[in-house]
UniProtKB/TrEMBL annotation:
Organism of derivation: Xanthocytophaga agilis
High-level lineage: Bacteria, Pseudomonadati, Bacteroidota, Cytophagia, Cytophagales
The protein's name: Ferritin-like domain-containing protein
A Pfam family per the record: Ferritin_2
Length: 264
């Protein structure tokens, strides 16, 4: 879950979102103070309270709730995936289980935050969809074969990092938000690199090589033009360029990937 992405989406239907929450700088100072004073489990409720105070009496509720429910649905997918993987007997090797337990805790916290935020606005959280992580049998052994599980984990993590990058341009007008967002983005990228390493893959994406996951996730990763310059003309190979620059994914590119695993 990307808090800054959610707030930016809300800004599309309410340009005054930052003023309602407090000043932009003040908002992040408040969040920082919470981190040192209260239990992490309380943060979702505090943030939900902020949204309730900001939007409790406005006409934007339905649009904001729709945005939050969209994010919640995606978080349901990731949370369910890791929960099922951790529950599958003998799937994850003992010396790797702590890694996925921690990732699972992150996803569970995201679901809690979004659910609380929606309820604080008197909205109804979206019902958790029925997921098919086999994608109609394409990954039939996802919870019995560790390598297949890792492949889908890589797919979800790489998608998340590229989707986040796809929103960076929307944050560039505000230095405070962009700085905080990039700090979170770098940690998410490390998660993706960790999963790739667990698969004995390079920590970075190489061209459109999906590594046996979902081809659509790597659309555009073979781009050799950066800043309007085709870097192959400067003597760099296409592979080296791809590895050195990560490409963004738009929302329209992300949705078809998610739909592969949402049954109803």
């Amino acid at each position: 879950m990307n808090l800054f992405k959610i707030i930016k989406d809300i800004e599309k239907v309410d340009a005054e979102v930052y003023d309602r929450l407090d000043s932009r700088r003040g908002m992040f100072k408040s969040v920082g103070k919470w981190g040192g004073r209260i239990a992490a489990a309380s943060v979702p409720f505090m943030l939900g309270g902020m949204l309730k105070k900001a939007y409790g009496q406005t006409s934007n509720n339905s649009a904001i709730i729709e945005i939050l429910n969209y994010a919640l649905t995606l978080e349901y997918l990731e949370n369910e995936f890791y929960a099922m993987g951790l529950a599958a007997s003998g799937l994850i090797p003992a010396d790797r289980k702590a890694i996925f337990q921690q990732i699972g805790k992150h996803e569970a916290a995201h679901v809690t935050f979004l659910t609380t935020a929606i309820q604080s606005l008197q909205g109804t959280p979206a019902t958790k969809p029925t997921f098919d992580f086999t994608a109609d049998g394409t990954y039939s052994d996802v919870f019995s074969n560790y390598q297949t599980f890792l492949a889908l984990s890589q797919a979800f993590e790489d998608t998340g990092v590229r989707a986040y990058k796809g929103q960076a341009g929307n944050l560039i007008s505000n230095n405070d938000v962009l700085t905080a967002a990039l700090q979170i983005h770098s940690v998410e990228a490390r998660h993706a690199a960790m999963v790739r390493r667990l698969r004995a893959q390079k920590g970075w994406i190489n061209g459109k090589d999906s590594g046996g996951t979902v081809d659509a996730i790597y659309t555009g990763e073979d781009n050799t033009t950066q800043g309007g310059v085709n870097l192959t003309t400067l003597g760099y190979s296409a592979a080296a360029i791809s590895q050195a620059f990560d490409e963004p994914l738009t929302k329209d590119q992300v949705l078809p990937v998610a739909s592969l695993f949402i049954k109803s």
